[in-house]
């Protein structure tokens, strides 16, 4: 009897202590796992700061992308800049750099001595947004030619029109656009924007006898030769959103042709917001270049998120919904995305851009032409 009572006196305090520690443990464990922000697995969200080309901003800030990343435990803070500027920026404090093409990504890795892998998240060809009223005379001039269902814009024919200082009012079969302005594609500022640099890369390829410019001497010769493609435009925006919005809102009177990314046009089609109306169409330069939006991780957590953006099936599906093409096996490049838009065409005559160093040499000469 005495022994039983002694055991009872010992067990009682032990049970009480266990109950106390159990309650304390329940209070501590959520704090240790960081439950207050409701991130992946109930943990705190890891903040990721990214410097990206403006063309990817809509995707990176898409609420569904934000939700998917939150489910995986991450929260993005997105700053934007021209891709050429991203190469030159101090990236201290950033976790990922995301220029709009692979040559800039390669240059960042070289300049910053980065050895970790980079990731192509998605890609999009450069394209020309125009109007059916413009397609008619350019078809008569032999600049626009249709192959199957794909309208191609012959860059050789176009460069010849520019060299001859052709005006819209001088073109054949042109009853609908009697404008005295020069036949000229509107672009962004080649001194800061990747889309204009890709435009330059295409033009330089054609003027170099259908060869990628690969030496300094040729680059320094072609820069001044091609400068008028940009200087004759007057003011140019630093981002494609500017001229593309003018194309959508003001229309043919201000922007009969604008060099954009296919993804911008397709994103509007997929969204079904009725902005692609009144004879607005997309044609493809021949040759053309794919802009490969390439993430350069700057640290371990940036690497984890860059890999996630490149490989997660849901994030890749959302990239397609934002107009991009992907190489992910679950979201092939031919996928139409949401909204009933037709699949993007498989393009012929796709070429590579020059290295960033060669591109910079041509741009430097064009900058000098601005005076």
From TrEMBL:
Locations of Polar residues compositional bias?
325-334
What keywords are annotated for this sequence in UniProt? Membrane, Transmembrane, Transmembrane helix
Q: Where is this region: Disordered?
A: 325-350
- Mind telling me which residue stretches traverse the membrane in this protein? 12-29
- What's the protein here called? Extracellular solute-binding protein
This protein's species is Pseudofrankia asymbiotica
